[in-house]
Amino acid sequence: MPALYRHFLQAMWLSWAAYWWVSSRNVKRTARHESLPSRLSHIAPLALAALFFSLPNSLAPFLSLRFLPSATWPFHVAVALTAAGLLFALWARRYLGSNWSGTVSIKKDHQLITNGPYALVRHPIYTGVLLALVGSGMAIGEWRAVLGLALASLAVVQTSTGRTLAAPAVRRDLSSLLPMCSGAYSFRSVSLFGTSR
How far is CA 61 from CA 54, 57, 144, in A? Predict the structure, then answer.
C-alpha cells in the first residue's frame, strides 16, 4: 500500500484529536467526577487498543497476519467508515458543547442533550469512534486491529452501560438532576451498547 494511503488515516485521526483538544478548553466546571480507579478501568483497555492499532509487528506474530487482502477496495471502504465515524463523533461533540467531559462526570448546570445525534443514539461519540476504529482496522487489515477493536469496545461498553466503578453514584446524581428527561430519553433513544443497571 502506498505511503500516502497509510498517512491519510493518521492525518484524519490527528485532525480529529486536534479539534477534540481545542474544543475541550471551553467546558463547564465539573461538579462531580468518577474516581481514578474508575477512570483507569476504561482508559487502560483504550491505551492497550491504541498500541495494537499503532504498532505493527506486535508481540505475537500471528497478530500481524492479514484478515483482509492488501487491495485498494478495502482501503476505500475503510476511509469512508473512518471518516463517517469521526464526523459523527465531531457532530455529537458540537452538540454537547460546554457539557462535554473526558470523564464520567456531572457538570455545573448540567443539561441533558437529546437533539442532533443524541436523538438518534444514546452515545453518539462512542458510536462514532467505534465506527472509525472499524474503518481503521479494515485499513490495517491485520488481526492486531481486531484485538484493538475488541479492547476499545470493552472500554466503551463499560463506560456507556454504567459498569465503571463510580458509575452508580454518578447515575444517581444524573437521575436526581434530570428526573423528567432521563426516563423519556432512555426510552426513545437507541443504545447500541445495552442499558445501564
Answer: 15, 7, 10
